[in-house]
Every structure is written in structure tokens, then in C-alpha cells.
Amino acid sequence: MTVEVTAGVPAVDGVTLAIEVRGLSHAFERPDGSSLEVLRHVDVSVPRGRFVAIVGPSGCGKTTLLNLVAGIEEVQSGSVAVSGEVPRCGNQRVGYLFARDALLPWRTVLGNTELAMELAGVGKVERRARAMALLEEVGLAEMANAYPAQLSQGMRQRVAIARTLAPHPELVLLDEPFSALDAQTKLLLQDAFCRLWGRLGATVVLITHDLGEAVALGDQVVLMTSRPGRIKRVFDVALPRPRSIVDLPSEPEYHRIVQELWAELREEVARR
Ligand SMILES: Nc1ncnc2c1ncn2[C@@H]1O[C@H](COP(=O)(O)OP(=O)(O)OP(=O)(O)O)[C@@H](O)[C@H]1O
């Protein structure tokens, strides 16, 4: 493996990296003053444009890892680089989406979708056009003037997806964005997200507890150990794209990877 750096952006064997995590360890202080070791010597490289899913037992440090990449949490030990730079909270090139949307209740669907672009300084005409195009994609153009309180949970999450993707981020960090949805809405949104991602070409890191979702969406699935979280294994998902999220479960290769993942994850859950 050759690691080079060109104009500040690292590359491994000629592949440009969006994220490079090296020897990352992290601990939190417990209320009694003792230390809780959450991450231990984590190494992960995510090439630009790749869709990487992260799975692991509850409490193994997945969200902490994402927060360190987003610059929300400060690095204690090891290093994190996003496009070759130290992560910075509020970086407009990075979009972050959580399980529960955080829509502003006093703004309409359109106003919420435009928010991140407004902060990024995108002009009014362009931001309206981009927001409406995305609302169309997620099937909410007719609700553009509604307020969040008038929407279902699935609709709110669709607005949150549109808002996250509207500024065309280079990197999208997703923390269980589909977990609070009913089964059908989940499938529709996964499908819509996949289509949009295919068009935007962003790098995506998705945290999920749903192994099927990880395999259906990801190019790679990173499996973490129980706490303190380390990288146990990286699975390559060689399923062709574009993928139909609904039809994938009938593919033998999909089943093989999900079963292998579960066999290894089960050991970690039992250890916990
Ligand atoms: N700010 C904090 N202060 C103290 N402890 C924290 C803090 N954030 C997280 N933790 C603890 O660190 C551990 C890892 O949390 P984290 O949310 O990263 O795990 P996770 O793998 O995302 O969990 P889950 O799958 O259940 O969402 C947990 O035990 C959690 O209670």
C-alpha cells in the first residue's frame, strides 16, 4: 500500500481519500470521574465517492466516530482527516443527518430545505430551484408550503434528506436516518436516497443497526467490535448498481454477506 499526498489530499494506491482515520482512540469521563474507553486504535480509509456503512453492537462508539469525523467531538489521540484537512464543525461541504430530523417548526418545508444553502451563501433564485427539484425527487413538492407539524415522521425525514443534500455536500454523514420509519416508508426513502446519491456522487458514511440496509446501500460494510470499538472486518459488497432496494433480498450474494456479517456481529454482541 502506498500513501501519497497531492495538494493536501491524501491518496492510497492512487485512490483519493475523502476520510482518513489513523490510530484513533477516544474516551469519555463517567459521572464518577473514571474513564470510559470508547474507541481503540481505529484505522479507516474512505475513498472519495464511496458509500460505506458502519455496523457494530450498541454502544461500541459508532456515533462517537462519526462525531469525530464531523468535527463535533475533538480528537484526543490519533488523527482524522476529511479531504486532507482537520475536521471542522459547520463545514458546508459536509452534511450530517440524524435519526430524528431537526426541522425548524416555524419554517415551511421549502424554508427548511433551503436552510443549509442559505447558510452556505447560495443565492435566492438558485436555492429555490434546487430545493424544489429535491422536494420533487422525494415526493414532497406539493407540500412545499406546509409546516413540519403538518407532516408525518416519514415526510419530515424526507425534508431532512432534501435539506442535507441540497447544498451538494462532498461528504454525507448519516446516523441511523431510516431507523424511526415504518417498513414501507423506509424502503421508499432508502431507494430515493440511493438515486440521489448516484446523481450527486458524494461520499457517504452511514451508521445503521440494520444489516440488510448496510448491504443494500453500501459499497463496503465496516464491522466494529464491542466497546472499546475497533475495526473487526471490512466487507466488500460486489452487488451491481443501480440497485433495486426492494428486489435485492432475493439475490443470493446479498444473503451471503448479511449472514456472514451477522455471524461475526453475533460474537461481538455476546461479548458485550
Ligand atoms: N458525551 C459523552 N459523554 C459521556 N459518555 C458518552 C458521551 N457520548 C457517548 N458516550 C458513551 O460512549 C459510548 C459509545 O456511545 P456511541 O453513541 O458512540 O455508541 P454507538 O455505537 O453509536 O451506540 P448505539 O448503537 O447504541 O447508538 C456509550 O457508552 C455512551 O454512553
UniProtKB/TrEMBL annotation:
PANTHER family named among the record's database cross-references: ALIPHATIC SULFONATES IMPORT ATP-BINDING PROTEIN SSUB, TAURINE IMPORT ATP-BINDING PROTEIN-RELATED
Keyword Nucleotide-binding: yes
The species this protein was found in: Aciditerrimonas ferrireducens
Annotated keywords: ATP-binding, Nucleotide-binding, Transport
ABC transporter domain segment(s): 19-251
Name recorded for this polypeptide: ABC transporter ATP-binding protein
Superkingdom field: Bacteria
A molecular function GO annotation: ATP binding
InterPro entries for the chain: AAA+_ATPase, ABC_transporter-like_ATP-bd, ABC_transporter-like_CS, ABC_transporter_ATP-bind, P-loop_NTPase
